[in-house]
UniProtKB/TrEMBL annotation:
Its main location: cytoplasm. Belongs to the PTH family. GO terms for cellular component: cytoplasm. It catalyses: an N-acyl-L-alpha-aminoacyl-tRNA + H2O = an N-acyl-L-amino acid + a tRNA + H(+). This is Peptidyl-tRNA hydrolase. The active site is at H23.
Amino acid sequence: MADELALVVGLGNPGPKYEGNRHNVGFLVLDELAARVRGKFKAHKGGAEIVEGRLAGRRVVLAKPRSFMNLSGGPVAGAANFFKVAPADVIVVHDELDLPYGTVRMKLGGGDNGHNGLRSITKSLGTKDYLRVRFGVDRPPGRMDPADYVLRDFSAAERKELAFELDRTADAVEALLTDGLEAAQNKFH
């Protein structure tokens, strides 16, 4: 495992219209990780933008699907197949409504909890057994539709802390790569 290639995927929607949305927090974390490996995302034939490099001493492919969130599975499975990465070495970074803002939680497998990006990835990989790094975006206020809420930008108050929270989430991904799931959970949960 020490030098096995890992595929780290950030979930989001492509295009400037969605850049600051809560749903795009996976893309934002991947941008931080790409800066750490001094890489720039480039289009890849599998339907994702990728950066190859070393992160925390481990070979990684960072990937941002160019499809919309609900169709993330095809590009993720395409990258996993192209780079010959087993689902157990796939890490998906995504937004999570059921966690308070900025909370980071990691797990292996589990359900999609209504997250269409995860549902698509699970279907395309043929398994739920991939790693997830969940970034809390909190529940929508009042009776707001969760789908509308995640497609809104972070609030001004959230943006004040966002750079710190993204940096901490990138640290969690690095801990997952170097120390494994249990040790990373003990450090960040």
